[in-house]
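Sorry to interrupt, but I need a hand with the structure work. Can you supply me with one protein entry, sequence and fold together? No commentary is needed, just the two lines. Leave the record below and I will have a look.
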Amino acid sequence: MTAVDALGSARSSGPSVQDLLATDTRPVPVPLLDHAAAPQGRADVPKARYASPEFAALEAAYLWTRTWQMACHVDHLRAPGDHVVYDVAGQSLIVTRTRDGTIRAHHNACLHRGTKLRTEDGRVASFRCPFHGWRWDLDGQLAEIPSGWDFPQIRDDPTRSCLPAAQVAEWCGFVFVNPDPGAPPFERYAAKLIEHFEHDFGLQDRVIAFHAVKEVPANWKVCMEAFGEGYHSLATHPQILEFAADENSQYSIWPDSPFVTRFHNAFGSHSPHLGDVDEQQVADAYLAFAAKLPKGAVPVPEGAAARHVVAEVFRGAMGERYGCDLSSRSDAEVLDAILYHLFPAFAPWAGVGQPLVYRWRPGATPDTCLMDVIRMAPVPDGAERPDPAPVQRIALDQSWREAEGMGSLADVFEQDMANLPRVQAGMSSTGKATVTFGDYQEARMRMHHRLIDRFVLEGLADDGRDRSEVERFLVPDG
């Protein structure tokens, strides 16, 4: 029984991801065989969750203040005083390397009159408020108050004089923060992610080779959801249908690790929408897209699978490019789009070469957001570890094509970007007040909305507020 079958008998024709893994030419990593589906009901989701300033305020108060989020990479924090300013939904944290080598995160606001201590990343010896000169050491301890005699209530009380701290965790080189000091530890929150990436899925000991962040004219959930399913490929990315098994993608939800999900789209296998496609056609289309090779450049022997042939080509090409031996890597690791998601908004790819990492954050209004695209590259054997690539900032009216080094990926992203303003505009339509998700291909999206509700309702309860205040925004049961 496949993960799809577990939800019912309805499924697309053609091989499932697990069917393809069973024919892999190499041993498949155990994590890829670990798949599960958990029904999320069929309830529609209110559109107001994407467009209402009131709901955005609920997320700011109760979601972004209580969840684990990727703030930066350890390579940004190599020396004491190195720091990154992480801003999200009205919150701001300074993530820094202290003098004893640990990484800490402090709320980025002066305890005097709230001035932001740092507005840019960099390296400093201490954090000094530009307004009145109050100063804190890298570990958050108060170091100086001009005219300290006038503030005994702060100066003499360690519980009030230290910068409030957030929780910090490191995983695969990334630094995560959680503003809630009472939140469950990262190791429990991200359990399935940690377990699966113990297999070398391409993030261990990698460096940031490319990093761009773009302002997008859509709610952060609209943008995130556009990268969470293969269902849209038929209409949005028709150029990949000959080699991407879009409708046969696998979506994993693990009930014992609810904040981690996975989207696995097999490449080197054609879309079931096309009917019968010759294996040579599959290989030609994939190699033309990924390597700009002409038709027939790599023949597919009679009776062979294009997926296996193309994987062997990529093993050699990527191994030579990155100075590593990929001979034991499975076809799936070499070819497929395997995208994990850590709720609410961090998504690392699993695979060899230069895996991607995505991050989403809300923008200044419910109609905008920020999306980060990061490419992680291996360090060649014997080479010195380079500095992380600088962040390229792409404005609302700019294209991903203006991000130097994004390559052909920019064209695919621009196809997605063309949809997003239309989606966001539809969220204000009064013709239908809800969004409808599919039972399987979009189950993770409905689950993410239910998790948002969980944090909002827990926060309301902690503040002594009643759920009736927000009932119109909530996803109904069923």
Notes: The chain has two domains: 5-41+187-273+313-426, 77-181. Residues 1-5 have pLDDT under 50 and may be disordered. Residues 443-462 form the longest helix (20 residues). The radius of gyration is 24 Å.
